[in-house]
């Protein structure tokens, strides 16, 4: 008998009925991931610092039949994160999936950057990942049912770049954290921790790079075998895969989702 179960194959990509907590839900990628989890049948708990945006997302998603809620908070603030997880559990009973999609950058040459500016980026992109994953891990361990964590980092986590001592260092730290969290949490607690590493995709901050006449756009395109830059929707498949049983044997992986950026 060939050892693969029909029921497993037919449901392995499902996140139906799971509870997904999404940070940075107010951002270009976070709102797409949050809605995608909802379309896939998960209950969605959103967070970010902008309560107004979260409210309008909740209105939009509920109008489409998505079961969702939110609490505003800062992912680099321990008390906020604890309150967000509690609110999620109060509303939906548990947390099964964590998608970390918040982030920040302020490019500056090291010679001009203050230590405070560097630290701000480190807190926004690295310390916050520690705090969010740590407290969600506590919750998942208490539930005793395992879980899935998907952290959005960057291809910059392994590549330097001018003016990016804050961003590249913090993303490198976040990807190393993913490796360590996998070691801490996967075998004993069945919590898979992986990252998605994008190159440029469209957001309010990167829109200017999508001008087909600009040198920046042409340079990026030359590094993209897929023939275009990214869109937030390009990451939905990976996020759902890494949140479902289909990825049960994958942990500590830094998943390239870059249109082939790595092969050129
Ligand atoms: N766009 C790209 O080309 C690209 C490429 C590679 C990797 N990434 C990474 O992908 C993730 C999502 O990017 P995106 O383009 O969707 O970003 P985005 O549209 O700028 O949204 C990022 C979200 O993070 C939150 N945020 C901003 N500053 C923060 C801070 N100091 N502390 C905590 N949260 C903060 C914001 O929400 P609130 O203001 O509501 O808190 C915002 O909604 C980020 O980790 C980013 O670094 C992006």
* Count of spatially separate domains: 1
Q: Name the poorly predicted regions.
A: none
Oligomer: single chain
Enumerate the distinct ligands: NADP nicotinamide-adenine-dinucleotide phosphate
Helix/strand structural class: alpha/beta
* SSE string, helices as H and strands as E: HEHEHEHEHEHEHHE
Tally of DSSP β-strands:
7
Shape: globular
Largest sheet: 7 strands, parallel
**Sequence of strands across the biggest β-sheet:** 3-2-1-4-5-6-7
Architecture per CATH nomenclature, i.e. the level-2 architecture = 3-Layer(aba) Sandwich
CATH class term:
Alpha Beta
Number of helices: 8
CATH topology descriptor: Rossmann fold
Mean model confidence by pLDDT: 98
Q: Give the CA-CA distance, first to last residue.
A: 43 Å
Q: Give the percentage of residues in beta strands.
A: 5-15%
Please give the radius of gyration in angstroms: 18 Å
Summarize the structure in words.
By secondary structure, the chain is α/β, with parallel strands linked by helices. It has eight helices and seven strands; from the N terminus they run αβαβαβαβαβαβααβ. It has a single domain, classed as NAD(P)-binding Rossmann-like Domain (Rossmann fold). The model has no long low-confidence stretch (mean pLDDT 98). The protein binds NADP nicotinamide-adenine-dinucleotide phosphate (NAP). NADP nicotinamide-adenine-dinucleotide phosphate binds next to α2 and α5.
